[in-house]
Amino acid sequence: MASDSDSDEDFVTYGTPLEPLEEDEPLKKPVPLHEQTVKDEKGRYQRFHGAFTGGFSAGYFNTVGTKEGWAPSTFVSSRQQKAEKQHVRPEDFMDDEDFSEHGIAPREITTSQEFSSGRKDAVREKARAVNAQAALIPGDTLLEELISPARLSIGVELLRKMGWKEGQGVGPRVKRKARRQQTKGSSRVHGVVLPPAGSEDSEQEEDDDDEEFAPENVTFAPKDVTPVDFNPKVGVQGLGYRGLDPGLALLGGGAAEHIDLFRPQSDTRSRLFGGAQRGSRRGGGVAGQAFGVGALEDDDDEEVYHRDSMSRYDTVLGGEEPGDGLYGWTAPQQYKKKAEKSKDASYLGKILEGFTLAQKPVRDKTIFPPPDLPRDYRPVHRFRPAVDVKSLSGVSPALAEALKTSRGHMVKEEPEQGGRHQLDSGQRRALLGEDTLQGPSSVMELLRPEDRERLKNLRNSSNVPATKAAPTPLSQDALKSAVTLAGSLAARAAGSADHGHDRGHDHGRQQEALAAWKGIQTTSQTFRPFEKNPSKQARYEMYLNRLKQGDKDALEQSLDSGVTEWERSRERDEFVRASILYRPSSSSLSSRFTRAKKEEDDNSVEVSRDEEGDVDDKQAAVNMKMFGKLTRETFEWYPDKLLCKRFNVPDPYPGCGIVGLPKVKRDKFSVFNFLTVTESREPPAPPKPPESGKRSRWDVSGQKAEEKKKEEDPLSELLSAARNQTETKPEKTLPASTSTNHQTPDSRTKEAKSADQEKGNKDDQEEEEVEEEENRPPMDLFKAIFAGSSDEKSSSSSEGESEDEEEEVGDIKKEEVQGEPQLINLFKVPSSSSSSSVTSSTTTPNTTSSRHTAVVSTQNSTQVEEEFGPKLPPPSAALSRGGATSIRSPAEEEKLSKRSKDKKHKNKKQHKHKKEKKKKKHKKHKHKGKQQKKSKKETSDSSSEEDSDGGEPEQVSTEELLKRLKSMKSHETW
Amino acid sequence: MTFPQPRPQAPQLPQHLLTTIDCQQGAVRAVRFNADGNYALSCGSDKSLKLWSVSRGTLLKTYSGHGYEVLDADGSYDNSQLCSCSSDKTVILWDVATGQVTRKLRGHAGKVNCVQFNEEATVILSGSIDGTVRCWDTRSRRFEPIQILDEARDGISSLKVVQHELLTGSVDGRVRRYDLRMGQLHVDFISSPITCVCFSQDGQCTLSSSLDSTVRLLDKSTGEMLGEYKGHKMKGYKLDCCLSSKDTHVLSCSEDGHVYCWDLVEGSLSLKLPVGKAVVQSLSFHPTETCLLTAMEGRVQLWGLEPEETVKTEEDTMAS
């Protein structure tokens, strides 16, 4: 057993043992995945951020401060307790992570410098030693060694004790020759070409010098060599990459080239040897251009920013450039003129470890300049038939000319396309991709068909170009025969050898042309390359048309079969090329634009899904007082969610995005969209006279429309005229003042001349006619058409005026009421501002020519403009009078009563029996009406209206008044 | 049966003039009782809105801030807020106590004819001549309406809110009832431009007056006509109508200077109250008592059941 325990002692355990399970303890729940977080030793969450070193995790969740917040340290200083000058080191601002092994300033136990045999250091030391020998003053580094602490590595000290001296190589002493060989051998062994540095050379020479007086029996220590750094490359970085060196970063260095008293050449030297530069800069802080200068750094005179001086740039072109071979490279770097090639290394920058500059220069590649092009060279090759026109015997100059022209069309026109001003409208249109304007494109289309046919026949029979510049038919014929002759000759001459090649080539081009023209449906006029030869042009157009239809063998079908083979092949060639050359530029242009994703002018419009039913039916139901199902319609209506919330009502359609009535997309211009509108607006029965509906004030525009309609429709006009004649005789003799818009002396417009007046009278009649009928058509349509325009108002005003006039006549006759201008505003709500005008009118009684326009403010007029729907009653004139409203003079009372009646009258729903009463008082009417009119006039556009309105009251002659009176009487008797 | 029970006693109607208030604010476009009937609001054409004590007839506060004549107003259930609408196209939410503008709601394209709070004063509903009803949120700071009801094809002349139902009357001759709970819109075609709509107190009927000088009582659920009341003049002006507090009578303004009062069931004219010579523009029935406010021109008149003296004494006793 004892042995057992012993053996237990001897066991080596790896890992952490599991905790022993206890029986009654419930099993621990495994930590779910989302709670398995990585924390650092302080319990903070490890987060991944920062690109290079694992990131800073500063403060409290990357903020300054702590969990409790950020509290700035308060500055306290008193007499007893002076504030300490704070010396803050960079480490104070660093996180713990930065001091760890992988941070930027690792703090861990490492070999101290005394015991370290860092390779880099060794290399440097050695380099220095080698330098010392080669320096101008031998033993130059002694000075440095005197000052710098002797911190030789143990290896060096051991060597020294073994008799080794600085500058010597290690190894058995050798004879001179052997040593030389060895040097060579070593270089051979390494296989590395050492840089042919100048110092090396001098050394070499030195060696040679030494050789001369070297005695035989003297042995030398082997020449010291700089060991080659055989650091294996372990990272995946690029060659020569050196990451952020913590030592460099913290201790400074890596800085500018400084003149160093102690190391005159060592720096460049060591650079060559690949050693890291240990600058003499005072340490502390990460330095470099990107880091700037911290606030805590002491010296200010340091160059914070990289300063670039112009002297480092070349300001002269040429000159010294060829020498350095930089060819215009003006990067801000210092390049000195160096004769030696080796010095180029300094401009190339640091040479990578283990690399040297190549000794053999790269062989220059001789570059031959391209040949000079002739001035008139065109980089297009045309296969021209090998016909030598000149050499053909018996060819007339005319034929030569013909050949030239037949060939030269395309070529000739090509440069013409250049200027925008040389294009005609059709070409520009084609360029822009617009459609052809409607209408005849040529004079030919204006001719009658038979004429055109005749012309065509004429032209075909002669087969002559119908151009103005065409020569006589005779010469044309001759020319044609000449062409044919030339064609056959040319065909023979061309040979069949390259014909096949041409075919293949042609085929490709035909395809291209087909692709360019296919599917283009624009009828836009394209360029006509063969304009001078109409038949050819016609064939060409036929070819194009076939191309557009996508016909593959368009070419063969459209060629003239009546000509020779050669001519046909020519023509084929020409057509294909022309079709490619003059392909519809709209296609090429349009290919540069993309179609708008969303069309601005959408053809569909959102309309309510549930259309309202037939209004006529409802109207009928209303007339029959059958309210209920017939007049009731129910729609789905989606209230806003928030609205439901505010009303404390559950959303009736939860989760539905619709608000309001559900909409559907309909064709914008569909008739059906407007069907209901028209239904509701139009009187149901077309033959029904338009006057049948009962009118309100708002019908004015409608009446006007009807009037217009009447004017257009002679029949209805006749009817109405007849009616008017029977009913209201004196209408024809209406004062001219009311004829505003219709001044033509036409018999038809004679009727219309009295349109306004007519309206007024008609209204009266209608009231009597269709007293009880309630089916007034809705005003919306008329409003939609006429709203906003001032005609409505002006017409209504004139209408009211006419009414007033009528009334006025009656008034004058029957009753002489004192001219209380307290008239009702016929149509408008007098606003508060207008009440002032009213008051003014009340205060100035008996003024027949009351011109209160000045009083009427523009506000009033604007309000008047806005009027739709039911009006508001006018504020009483008593308002301005203040409190004494209860006490009214009898006259006022009377006025009031009349006013109410007038209102009714205005609304044209007045009954006959009331008229008598109404007539009592008219002047007021007139004045007020006039006032109103004036205010309206301000907004009205029609000056003619204005004139008639303004001039009227004074111009009414007694005769006219009598006439009107008659008409009134006829009304009443009727 | 949606009709109220036949009344046991003789008709009680506000036929005695109690007070006449000269509001001195131009024409009074609308007069409204507040929720409990102790106060009245008068909307003047001189851009002001005035708050009155009904019993004493005294002016309590003037609210000015509108840019044009005030057309309608309403008070919240708790009397803490007022809303008013105006020809200047705005709706204003007022703080009663301070008289300050709490919010000025712009958005309507035309003059705003009618305005009302919902029951909890969380939403202001306003109907405008532009044909839309806009629902403004009083709780949030949003200046856009919650929803715009643009189903009307012409101007909205009147609207009423009761619980979850919104009743609008439009010049296009239709009475629309939006039922928020059901998510339905009921449209009743009346054909003549509607000037005023009302719910009955029991919420079963709607009353609508139109420019054909007719007041119609419609069954709310089916749209059938239950009663038609004629005799008054309403041809061109936007005049009010209402039901009495106990749904016994239908009242309507008239252009002939009277308030017409019909028996709801029989449809017979019970009372023709001569208010004045001009147009009676607005009227408002007391929510509980038999008390009527009428507005004609610049005056507001209070009508009561009893002759003036008795009421006065009553009020005195109440006040003391």
Automatic annotation (TrEMBL), chain B:
Keywords: Cytoplasm, Repeat, WD repeat. SMART domains: WD40. The keyword Cytoplasm applies. InterPro entries: WD40/YVTN_repeat-like_dom_sf, WD40_PAC1, WD40_repeat_CS, WD40_repeat_dom_sf, WD40_rpt, WD_repeat_MORG1. One of its GO terms (biological process) is mRNA splicing, via spliceosome. It is found in: Cytoplasm. Pfam families: WD40. This is WD repeat domain-containing protein 83. It comes from Labrus bergylta. GO terms for cellular component: catalytic step 2 spliceosome; cytoplasm. It comes from the Eukaryota. Belongs to the WD repeat MORG1 family. WD repeats lie at residues 21-62, 63-104, 105-140.
